[in-house]
Amino acid sequence: MATHVSPRVAFPNMAEFPRSPTPVRLEPDVEHQESAERLATFLGWFSIGLGAATLAAPEQMARFIGADGDHNDRMIMRLVGLQELFVGAGILRSRKPAGWLWMRVAGDLLHLSMLSGAMASGPRRPDRMAATTAAIAGITALDAYDAVKLSSQGTPRSTAWEGGPVDVHQSVTIYKPISEVYSFWRDFRNLPRFMHHLESVEVSDGGRSHWRAKAPGGTTVQWDAEIVEDRTNELIAWRSTGGDVDNAGAVRFAAAPGEKGTEVHVQMSYDPPGGVVGKWFAKLFGEAPEQQVYDDLRHFKQVMETGEVTLSSGGYDGTHVLQRPAQPPRSAAQVRS
Prior knowledge:
Blueprint: E1 24-25, H1 30-56, H2 58-64, H3 71-93, H4 98-120, H5 126-153, E2 166-174, H6 178-186, E3 198-203, E4 208-215, E5 219-231, E6 235-243, E7 247-255, E8 262-270, H7 275-284, H8 289-306, E9 311-313, E10 314-316, E11 321-327
Antiparallel strand pairs: 1-2, 2-8, 3-4, 4-5, 5-6, 6-7, 7-8, 9-11, 10-11
């Protein structure tokens, strides 16, 4: 088991934390940005796959789209393959992929122009070429849609797309007293009850604990952690001391405006397992850390306020959240508050 020790201090600028204006607050445009980024990642891998296939078998690809597959066709297909590989790699590596997506749009338009000329000259298989033209037109629309979405957001991809750690900040307002909310969270053994990816937490003396969680690809990761700061009804801060995931963070508890419940602010920084490739695939398959924390806080709010979790994609066995279409537990026995 690899060992990492985190030097990061959670919440270095505690006084600057914003107050939560809504019961559950996802950071601005995170959901839309994550959706656009996942589509960009898909299009990047699509480009690489198409480029590799075209370079490996240019004659077969030319005939597949309805061309003759002669020397000129093979040369054109090789150039197209190189272009797809270059643009696909640019999309996947860039923190601002909008520009690379616009390059895909330009390439798509060039391909459509070439196909239009080939159709006018009487292709070997006009039916296939017409189908290819329609498919590329659809892909062009998809490329342009994602390029517009990412250009309008103007926010770089999170560091999960690069080699650095992932930084997440989410907030929730819970209509319960601070003492009750703090006490529930402070007993880390309660956390798997509303954190979908967390399997177990074993608590030992001296503020130390051992964590076990599910990771992308059906794997499991474990790490040890210690509490570095604990202020009753105000703050719990931690950092990892060894294991598979280097992480640090803090949870701040504050009175909501008008003394209507408790604001819970979570900030954490961690390096997901699997390196850069693992981060890409986690994003692609909907495992974005911002969304994970958002969902966990929503479940926490439900447990604290109602004693139940409104399930949305498995079940709730009284110990863990298991996802499935939204519905309440069938009986009170399913939930232990």
